[in-house]
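User: I need a structural model of PITH domain-containing protein from Microbotryum lychnidis-dioicae for a docking pre-check later this week. Nothing fancy, just the predicted structure tokens so I can convert them on my end. Input:
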Amino acid sequence: MDCRDDLTSVDLDHSVVTESLASATSSSTISLYPFIDHHGCYGTNLALPDSLPRVLRPLDSKDGGPWTGGSIDSQDDDDELLVHVKFTELVKIKSVLIGTGGGRASNAPRLLKCWVNRVDGLTFSDVNSTATSQEFELLESTSGSHDSLEYPVRLARFSNVSTIDLYFANTRGGESSRLYYLGFMGESRRIKKEENSGMTVGAETGVDTMIDRMKESKPSGGASVR
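Assistant: Understood. Predicted structure tokens for PITH domain-containing protein:
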């Protein structure tokens, strides 16, 4: 039995994360970057209010760190950071990609909480009073690099997502949080629906064609069955 949908960050180790990165290239799993509505995304408590696009980048730049996209920081002396991401259509999130700058850095957050389909977003006062969709203990990178790590989610809770709110906190230094990358892997629900719809139409068309052929081949003067 595959229990990966029930995994939490406490159950994960580096080998699991590495394995999930390899599986993310399957044909049904793609980067959800093209489905992000950037005009509907924002961050709360950012040191630079309009800096969120620095980390919401295409998948091929996930390990580029500060050399390709930069980073975002929470305000000084406050390690809490809220990010609201809106999608252009319903998506199924299978994993979240997080780049924290190595994990051992004093400004690398070690806690992530996620909420899905909170259309109006969340405030910091909601963080402790609203049930989460999933929580993660962010892993430390022993290499000290800026590579992103992938965190699988509970698929049942992330199967039809229009928005996701992410709360980062609990840095080693307790002063500010820094992120280098934020991304999502999964699939578009619209594309999946269209594929299933196409299969249904095809089946109906096949039945109609078979009936038409039977009508055409029926003898005009044949005896009727009583």
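Before docking, keep this in mind: The mean pLDDT is 78.
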